[in-house]
């Protein structure tokens, strides 16, 4: 253990699994970064990234409203199935898809 690390100890005196200062340093760095990119009025501006969460939530809402038999529900389900990755696929395939997809043009405020 380096001189800059502190380690929490369990009540019985054994070492806890995580070095406290390493976690604190990572949290502080993340906080500094987020504050550095925050706009004066308090908002952050970044590219919206997502997978199929909006479609999934829309389908869930339609289901709760008793409208799962509608054509739009079936179309959304077909879209989700087309987006589904093979069982063994991991982030590398998802990232490759994202990089090859056309990107929307950013507009200035």
- The tally of helices reads 4
Radius of gyration: 22 Å
Helix content: 40-55%
Which class do the helix and strand fractions yield? mainly alpha
* Terminal CA distance: 49 Å
Which descriptor suits the 3D outline? Answer: extended
Low-confidence stretches: 1-5
| Percent of sequence in beta strands | 5-15%
Instruction: Please tell me the overall pLDDT.
Output: 78
Number of E-type strands: 2
- Please give the order of strands in the largest beta sheet: 1-2
Describe this structure in words.
The structure is a single chain. The protein has 109 residues and is mainly α. It folds into 2 domains: 7-37; 53-100, no CATH class. It contains 4 helices and 2 strands; from the N terminus they run ββαααα. The chain is extended and about 60 Å long.
Jot down its keywords.
single chain; 109 residues; 2 strands; disordered N terminus; mainly alpha; two-stranded antiparallel ribbon; 2 domains; 4 helices
Write the layout of secondary structure elements.
Layout: E1 7-9, E2 15-19, H1 20-37, H2 53-64, H3 71-83, H4 91-100
Antiparallel strand pairs: 1-2
């Amino acid at each position: 253990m380096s001189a800059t690390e502190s380690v929490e100890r369990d009540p019985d005196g054994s070492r806890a699994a995580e070095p406290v200062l390493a976690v604190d340093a990572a949290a502080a760095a993340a906080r500094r970064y987020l504050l550095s990119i925050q706009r004066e009025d308090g908002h952050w501006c970044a590219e919206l990234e997502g997978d199929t969460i909006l479609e999934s939530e829309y389908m869930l809402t339609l289901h709760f409203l008793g409208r799962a038999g509608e054509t739009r529900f079936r179309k959304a389900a077909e879209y989700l199935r087309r987006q589904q990755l093979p069982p063994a696929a991991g982030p590398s395939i998802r990232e490759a898809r994202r990089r090859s997809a056309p990107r929307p043009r950013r507009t200035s405020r």
